[in-house]
Design goal:
The protein is α/β, with parallel strands linked by helices and about 1000 residues long. It is built from 34 helices and 30 strands. A hairpin with a 4-residue loop joins strand 5 and strand 6. It is globular and about 90 Å long.
């Protein structure tokens, strides 16, 4: 008998055939291009032909295998069990298995009982992620792998989303970073995602077996894993059978069952067409050709006036939109007519592309046309402005609004769906009222559709057309770009055609935008005059899906993809200087630039800098602050974040000789409680050692102890601080559990959030090094001083530090006194600043979050960036506190401060609130809505910034510059009304 194992993965089908002696007769590995059933059928037919007289025992495994197994009556084996069978047979000394597949990643711990950890809702850091990054770099996978060996520097790249990681990679490409370094950085991101996301509190050590296609074919990825985990050749195994291993284990399982199967019957079932009526489908986009023709005719009316540049003479105005992945150029005439347009991928080299296009434009203009003004917008705005001397840099939102308003003065809602971002603006009384951008996930953007058209073997233009007349558009939901593969596979199994998939994906894009990004309750919330922009809306299926979902017609200009550039040209025209600074045609012919790489040494961040030199200027990127870019930091503008950090420095003292040394992590609520604990322990004759910013090597080690990849970044950072304290010579580490904050009488209760309250419990359970060190994590409540004092006396006595109860009570009193002094100092500074704002009519931002958001490694310098925009920065705890009535139960102290701050700023016309939110914070799903409603009810703009370990602030800067521009527009409108 012959034993056949089949592994139907997310992107590939693997087969292994064994004989009675467990010898491999043959093995295959092939991509299924989202057609797994067809490829399985093809393989079985080939095998039957090659072994015509053999009996077969067959089993199937894999993420896409269960449905096939069920429909075709084939035994199914769970892939972890299949892997375990294979390991026991071939590599019995293995402690841990790490496997990367097409869209899944898993770690299997075999020592001490089998335990599997697998990626959940996100497929970042898998094989498909690497594929997408390879396409972005315009490389093939073997070239990416080869280049990674010649890297000299690793850059931080987010691997949590295959599309969103472009936000990190694209700027590096634009800055001229070597592809060797980017390739290695992609691998480093995959390693970090795998270990930090999947180890979840267990150490990765011992004999490790690496399986899956990416870990076999990509030698550079093997190298990164070995370096990161400090593995030798003896305890890191990358077997030749790695890509086929689940299929091998499946064949072992087939041998264990030993049941002979009828291949003819299996083939018949595989060939059977599914019943299309079972397909869960959406309503067709168009019911008839006539309906489609009316749709096209209506949208063709929305067109931009055009003129022939060859015959035009007079003044012209240049607009450029240098986006994250594309570059758009327009030239308009005196009467707004379009003279020239260009749209292309920036191919990671926007400067050379624009240099070529500017030369072309100058040649077309000759002496007949004079470019009187120029404007640039988009992610690459500063780079292009510096390189070519553009007159104006315009924030994206203003550029897009300017274009939409030009064609429809009554516009009250704009949605722009680009390659990897979604921007939405509500317009009220002629001004931008609110701005919404997609945050952590970019499912539902242009790259989302591009990825699927490629995976299904179609060009994006043809793929878009295929869905227009689909009879049963697949109901796919709106999920992660990579994980959508499973929905597509299920739909195809149910009978969906490529046309149905195309239409279903178009509908998915729209539902994601409406219900997950904009989060509307009904279509009327968006307004009546809606303008759509961005290249994605050139897809008629997407546009039609948007209109059908809203139940109303919208406006799409025939230059939908160029609206940012057109808006920049409009701004340049309406604000033309007497003499333009734009590079002349003569200087353009001599234009050169070069990039060099350096490390900023001005602080401990050691930011990797890319310095691009032009003839008379240079452009620096990679810096986290103005100093790194060679600019002076504005110290003349009040910043309460900096003020609070300076206050906390007084508690970072040298230890006293002979005094017991207690280590305290400077994290979460401890940021605010340090004044209390410092005074408390000093009054007991002890020295306090605070944790320092962990080094990179410490962080990687600490990340293995993080048990959840979805917990907020401030909580993840606790692990690094604990490891830093372990490296210090402290007598014990103190990190108490505190269900309650001090009651400030501004909420119905005074809870800390569950993560803040009980994270010490989790630290104790997951940081194994604490088993050998004294670690105190008692449950305490400062609102109950008697209980508090007795608990601390008992805890300290257990460590051999015996104190009388009165001594402990006095230490509590001194600690509360110090904490009150600290809070009052912040309030006094806040009052001084408010007086200054009133007296000088200054603009200010309340950067509202939690006490730990002043941590520079958490906020990534957002406070300093606001200063650079000319804003005074206040914190929510620097304002007078009040209790605010909310729709939901107001029971958390930190969040009650947010509500109080949101109500307070309504008294100040030039003050706005920006809410800092950490990814993974469940409570902020509630508080965000509450703060938004409080602000909008009082005519304020709601701005929410989601932050995590990703340090690229491109989207954040756009949001904050947009906020500033909107505030200025409102002030201008109010001035005109008064005048």
């Amino acid at each position: 008998m012959i034993y056949l194992g089949i592994d139907v993965g997310s992107t590939t089908v693997k087969t292994v055939i064994l004989n009675e002696n467990n010898e491999i007769l043959e093995k295959t590995y092939q991509r299924h291009l989202a057609k797994p059933k067809e490829l399985v059928l093809q393989r079985i037919l080939e095998i039957q032909k090659r072994y015509p007289n053999e009996n077969f025992s067959l089993s199937i495994a894999g993420s896409a295998g269960m449905g096939i197994a069920k429909n075709c009556e084939i035994p199914f084996v769970q892939e972890v069990y299949a892997t375990s069978l294979g390991v026991r047979q071939m590599f019995p000394k293995t402690d841990i298995v790490i496997e990367l597949g097409g869209e899944d990643a898993k770690i299997i711990f075999l020592t001490g009982g089998v335990e599997e950890r697998m990626n959940g809702s996100c497929a970042g850091g898998t094989g498909a992620f690497i594929d997408q990054m390879t396409n972005l770099l315009n490389l093939d996978i073997s070239e990416l792998d080869r280049l990674s060996f010649n890297a000299s520097k690793i850059y931080p790249i987010a691997s949590r989303c295959g599309v969103f990681a472009k936000s990190d990679i694209q700027p590096l490409l634009n800055q001229g970073v070597r592809k060797e370094d980017i390739s290695a950085s992609i691998y480093a991101a995959v390693v970090e995602q795998t270990i930090a996301g999947l180890a979840q509190g267990r150490e990765v050590k011992g004999n490790i077996l690496f399986l899956g296609g990416p870990l076999f074919f990509l030698k550079g990825l093997q190298k990164r894993f070995k370096e990161a985990l400090n593995l030798s050749d003896e305890n890191a195994t990358f077997p030749d059978i790695g890509p086929f291993f689940v299929a091998y284990g499946s064949a072992i399982y087939a041998k264990k069952t030993g049941t002979a199967l009828n291949l003819d019957k299996i083939i018949e079932l595989l060939q059977k067409s599914p019943n299309k009526e079972l397909l869960e489908s959406e309503e067709p986009l168009f019911g008839s050709q006539a309906e489609f023709d009316e749709f096209i005719a209506r949208h063709e009316k929305a067109s931009v006036p055009k003129a022939d540049i060859a015959s035009y003479s007079g003044s012209a105005y240049l607009g450029v939109d240098c986006g994250s992945t594309t570059i758009k150029v327009v030239l308009i005439g005196e009467n707004y007519e379009l003279l020239y347009k260009f749209y292309s991928s920036n191919k990671g080299d926007p400067i050379n592309i624009l240099q070529e296009k500017l030369s072309e434009i100058y040649a077309l203009c000759g002496s007949r046309i004079k470019i009187k003004s120029s404007g640039v917008t988009g992610y690459g705005e500063e780079l292009i402005k510096t390189a070519f001397g553009f007159d104006y840099g315009i924030v994206e939102t203003i550029a897009h609004y300017s274009a939409a308003r030009h064609f429809n003065p009554k516009v009250d809602f704009i949605i722009d769906i680009g390659g990897q971002d979604i921007k939405c603006f509500s317009i009220k009384d002629g001004n931008i009222d609110s701005i919404v951008l997609n945050e952590a996930c970019s499912s539902g953007c242009g790259s989302f559709l591009q990825t699927f058209s490629n995976s299904l073997g179609h060009e994006i233009k043809n793929f878009a057309k295929m869905g227009l007349f689909a009879s049963h558009p697949a109901k796919l939901g709106s999920r992660c770009t990579v994980f959508m593969n499973s929905s597509v596979k299920q739909a195809q199994k149910d009978g969906a055609s490529v046309e149905d998939i195309s239409a279903g994906l178009a509908i998915s894009v729209i539902k994601n935008a409406i219900y997950k990004v904009i989060r509307v309750r009904n279509s009327d919330d968006l307004g009546q005059n809606i303008v759509v922009q961005g290249g994605t809306f050139l897809n008629n299926a997407v546009l039609r899906a948007f209109e059908k979902e809203l139940g109303k017609n919208v406006i799409r200009l025939d230059i939908s993809e160029l609206m940012g550039a057109y808006g920049a040209a409009l701004f340049a025209r309406d604000n033309a200087p007497e003499s333009s600074n734009l590079i002349t045609s003569e200087k353009l012919a001599l234009f050169t630039h070069k990039s060099e790489f350096d490390t900023c040494k001005l602080c401990t961040n050691k930011c990797p800098l890319t310095i691009t030199h032009f003839e008379n200027s240079k452009f620096i990127t990679g810096n986290k602050c103005e100093r790194g870019a060679g600019k002076a930091i504005r110290n003349d503008i009040t910043n309460l974040f900096e003020f609070k950090n300076e206050l906390l420095k007084k508690y970072k003292k040298l230890p006293k000789d002979g005094a017991p040394k207690v280590g305290i992590p400077l994290v979460l609520n401890m940021y605010e409680m340090i004044p209390f604990w410092s005074a408390f322990f000093e009054n007991l004759g002890m020295s306090v050692a605070l944790s320092r910013k962990p080094r990179k090597e410490t962080l990687f080690l600490a990340n293995q102890s993080i048990p959840s990849d979805t917990v907020c970044y401030p909580a993840k950072s606790v692990h690094g601080h604990i490891y830093d304290l372990l490296a210090q010579n402290v007598d014990f580490i103190f990190y108490p559990c505190m269900s309650y904050n001090l009651d400030e009488n501004i909420s119905e209760n005074c809870y800390n959030c569950p993560v803040v309250a009980y994270y010490p419990e989790l630290i104790k359970a997951n940081v194994s090094a604490l088993d050998e060190r004294a670690f105190l994590y008692p449950h305490l409540d400062l609102n109950s001083p008697e209980f508090f004092a007795k608990t601390m006396r008992k805890e300290l006595a257990n460590l051999g530090f015996k104190f009388k109860l009165d001594v402990i009570k006095n230490a509590v009193f001194q600690g509360k006194k110090e904490l009150e002094n600290y809070k009052n100092t912040v309030l006094i500074k806040g009052e001084e600043t408010l007086n200054l704002i009133r007296e000088q009519n200054l603009s200010a931002i309340v950067l509202a979050g939690r006490p730990y958001h002043i941590d520079k490694s958490v906020n990534h310098g957002i406070d300093r960036y606001l200063n650079s925009l000319g804003f005074i920065v206040l914190s929510e705890d620097s304002l007078p506190l009040m209790q605010v009535q909310t729709k939901s139960l107001n029971q958390w102290t930190y969040h009650a401060r947010l509500y109080s701050a949101a109500r307070f700023i309504c008294k100040y016309p030039k003050m706005q609130l920006v809410q800092l939110v950490s990814f993974g914070c469940g409570i902020d799903a509630i508080t965000g809505d509450e703060v938004r409603d409080l602000l909008r009810a009082n005519g304020k703009i709601y701005t929410q910034l989601k932050i995590d370990e990703v340090t690229n602030l491109g989207a954040v800067k756009i949001r904050l510059r947009s906020l500033k521009a909107t505030m200025l527009e409102r002030e201008k409108a109010q001035f005109i009304q008064k005048g």
